[in-house]
Amino acid sequence: PVLRLLEAQLQDQRREHEEEMEALRNQVDLMQEELEKQQQAFLQSLQLSPEVQVELGLQQEITRLTNENLDLKELLEKLEKNEKKLKKQLKIYMKKVQDFEASQTMVSVERRLHERNMQVAVQRKEKDFQGMLEYYKEDEPLLIRNLIT
Predict the structure, then answer these.
(1) Which residues form a coiled coil (predicted)?
(2) What is the rounded distance in angstroms from the CA atom of residue 11 to the CA atom of residue 31?
(3) Which pLDDT belongs to residue 132?
(4) What percent of the chain stands above pLDDT 70?
(5) More confident call, 46 vs 129
């Protein structure tokens, strides 16, 4: 059983290795073809007059710059779309923050009103205590006389 398992693993590895080798061979073939094309283009350009070589070089550079320009335009469009999306999200979040702050302000106002009501209630309770007496300062001598008698 162990021998069969090892044998199966070895066959799997061999198959993977062969597939990798085939892919690498194909890649080498493609690179050789590209190299041959470039060599032929180079040899042809050497046979051309200097003016034509310059013109071909300029055409290649124009083509390269045009492609780069198109890529940059595409990137700019993506960034502009992303900017619009982010601005919309920002507006939504700003609205949520304003709503939250407004609700917090309302809660704060309600708390203060509740605290004032509580203070009023506490003051009323303090007035109901037994043994406490409310009087005006000018009535103090009369109060003392009545307490003594």
Answers:
(1) 3-103
(2) 30
(3) 66
(4) 89
(5) 46
Residue 133 contacts by C-beta under 8 Å, 6 or more apart in sequence? 143
Token look-up 């103090």 returns 140
Domain ranges of the chain: 8-47
In the prediction, which pLDDT does 10 show? 95
pLDDT digits (tens, 9 = 90+) for 132-144: 677 788 888 888 8
CB 121 within 8 A of CB 114: no
Residues 6+ apart with CB under 8 A from 127: 134
Cα–Cα distance measured from residue 87 to residue 31, given in angstroms and rounded to the nearest whole number: 47
Amino acid found at 58: L
Burial profile 43-82: b = 16 or more Cβ within 10 angstroms, e = fewer: eeeeeeeeeeeeeeeeeeeeeeeeeeeeeeeeeeeeeeee
* Torsion sign over Cα 3, 8, 9, 14: positive
